[in-house]
Every structure is written in structure tokens, then in C-alpha cells.
Prior knowledge:
The chain has helices spanning 25-38, 41-53, 58-65, 69-81, 100-111, and strands at 56-57, 85-90, 93-98, 120-123, 126-129. The protein is an alpha+beta fold. The chain has a domain at 42-129: Orthogonal Bundle (Arc Repressor Mutant, subunit A), CATH 1.10.10.
Amino acid sequence: MARKAVKRSTPAVSAPAETQQEVSEPAVRELAQVFKLLSDETRLRILFYLAQNGELHVTDLCNRLGQSQPAVSHHLALLRVSGLIEARREGKHNYYSVLTEHFSELLVSLFSATGEMPRKVRFHDFTLNYSGE
């Protein structure tokens, strides 16, 4: 049986091997750790809530997630140690926010490894936009 030739409306684009950037081993290891952390639904939700609201108190996160304070604090500690979020103490209360600079550096390392940094990366109905230089 003969195979049909399929015409592409746009040619496949691939950068020449000499212009592609290599991702360093430490960057690969760090990205793997970040993706392991974010593979947990609760930690990913925490990151989304913090990104949407700027800064949240632990109790706010507990209420949004429907989880106990010790459970949420455990997830926050893992995210904080990884450098994805930071804590600010005000009296007896801790407030958390995303360390956007560190997180964006990791994403740039990942997505620019193929050559040019894409302006948008889409995951189903979620889109990451890059507006840097």
C-alpha cells in the first residue's frame, strides 16, 4: 500500500546545531527539582494563589486549600527552601509571596535552551507569556 505524501503548510523550524544553547547540568538538576516540587497539586495551587494575590497569610492559604495549617506550612517550607517563594514575618504572622525573579530565570533557562526564547508557551488552557528582552 502506498503512503500518502503529507504537505506541511509551514516548514518545520529547527535552529542549526551550532546556534543552539546547551543547558548546564546544574540548571537541569535545579529544573528537575522544581518540577518535582510542582508535580504536587497542593504546591502548584499555592504557587498559583500567591502569583494571583501577590502575598498571602498562611491562614488564607489554609482556607483556600481546605487543608490544615501544619500541612500547608510543610508545603510552604519546601517551596521556600527551593527558592520559589519567600516569607515575610509581621508580628506572629507569616506572609508568603513568589520570588518571581528566581522563578522566571528557571523558566528562561528551560525554554531558551532550544535557541530563541518563545514569547508564549501554552499548556492546555494555561499560557505563560514572556515579555523580557
